[in-house]
């Protein structure tokens, strides 16, 4: 089975990063992730990411450089190809999400304390500076 192509925003504002907890009833409910979603056929990643963030958080973003791209086979057997991009807000910060039951802005050093979706862990290790030499 092909991996599911997912894009996510590492949305930075004033030295903090937005993290979101997946709402009850969704895949991986209760785990933290970066906002984003699946890339639709024919869509370029940056456009898919801006669309997903607009749909779920109701805000505009600027999509910058690719921070990390990793394929993770989850415990349920599905492979997620997750591309995380550095992003900034284009306008006001989000107040709520259609997909999440908590939004938090945290300094990168504090990201490691959360229960992250498996696919996000490589990006989180990059952001917290806790990558092992052999990774
Ligand atoms: N958005 C997002 N999804 C992630 C991350 N990490 C991770 O494993 N996923 C998984 C959860 C889902 O199985 C899939 C993305 O689905 P989604 O539900 O957020 O995206 P979507 O809006 O396009 O999907 P859908 O509910 O319309 O089917 O990727 C992440 O950091 N952000």
TrEMBL record:
Q: Would you say which domain of life the source belongs to?
A: Bacteria
User: Which UniProt key words apply to this protein?
Assistant: DNA damage, DNA repair, DNA replication, Hydrolase, Magnesium, Metal-binding, Mutator protein
Q: CDD domains under this entry? A: NUDIX_MutT_NudA_like
The reaction(s) annotated as catalysed by this protein in its Swiss-Prot or TrEMBL entry are:
8-oxo-dGTP + H2O = 8-oxo-dGMP + diphosphate + H(+)
What are its cofactors? Mg(2+)
> Which SUPFAM superfamilies does this one have?
Nudix
Put simply, this protein is called: 8-oxo-dGTP diphosphatase
Organism of this sequence: Leifsonia virtsii
